[in-house]
Please model this.
Amino acid sequence: MAKVVVGLSGGVDSSVAAHLLQKEGHEVIALFMRNWHDETVTLHDECPWIEDSNDAILVAEKLGIPFQVIDLSAEYKDRIVDYMFAEYQAGRTPNPDVLCNREIKFDVFLDKAMALGADFVATGHYCQKSTTFVDGQEQHHLLAGADANKDQSYFLCQLNQAQLAKALFPIGALQKSEVRRIAHELDLVTADKKDSQGLCFIGKVRLPDFLQQQLQPRKGDVIEISAETHLDFNKELLPETSPWESQVAPFLLDPNFGKKVGEHNGAHYFTIGQRKGLAIGGTPEPLFVIGTDTVKNVIYTGQGENHFALSKGGLFVANADVHWLREDLKLQSGESARYEARIRYRQALFSVELHATDIGLYVIFDEAQKAVTPGQFVAWYQNNEVIGSGVINF
Model:
């Protein structure tokens, strides 16, 4: 049996994961990660870290496993928070949970676990892992969780083979209802606890307050782009070049195409597809953010969730941002392949075609998708296995 360090978060999923490992006969050690100290922007009633820590202690005592709290706040600030500020300032919308898994849980935390003599680290993620051998070498496969409604493989799409080799996902083959049932049978304090939301191991935050720690408010214009400009607008901005380049050309918005309908406190506080927070009424349909320009400090909006600018036929990932979990399937320039993909958590998989070029990867959708957001991640799958992922550039 192996020595396994479990990231015990104070939630029901990691609690049951620890129990299952113990049941299998492994030597289990529980570590709680504290990644944040500034409570001024945290919604305490949503996800208080102190309560989570206390619940984790109670679970560890109930299971009879060693427990300790480790402070990773310095690493979290350097690798996650600073990156978030930089991305928002540049007008992109980062996904801190994907980064937290790559940079914290399966890097810094993994190193801490290995220093304790661990063979593996385990988490309460709803995903699965299998291992095959190719030419005598291990090939690890990251698979979707058995519970389609809770599948979290998307959040792990940036892991590499070395990280996956040391990872265990004990609840990946279970349904959420089964996890709660086991927790009730064990009389764990976390059995009925609500799922956590918000930033990885921080909790739910007031995002504007959080961003204003470094990104100062700046008054700017809100421009509305009428849906009636669709044909002429696209004709001018999306010239026909190639079957895929014309679909994923950057959405270059020009104020001449719209009218000022209000003001905002900073373009870097908004993201594509956002509806709340504009504080502008009086329109027949709700206004949605369809683009931001943090240099000119302008927000572009359109009425209705079916506004043409909210949908795209594809996206682009620069070479530096392309990641292949299955390196044996990596596309070379000029090659293409068909996969299924998603661009956000819990989104249903949709069919795409990947085209590799000298400068990056074009991901072309069979059907247009809404709110394709720069800074977020696209992940592509084959038979419910994560094959690769990348940061959306446009």
Notes: Residues 231-253 have pLDDT under 50 and may be disordered.
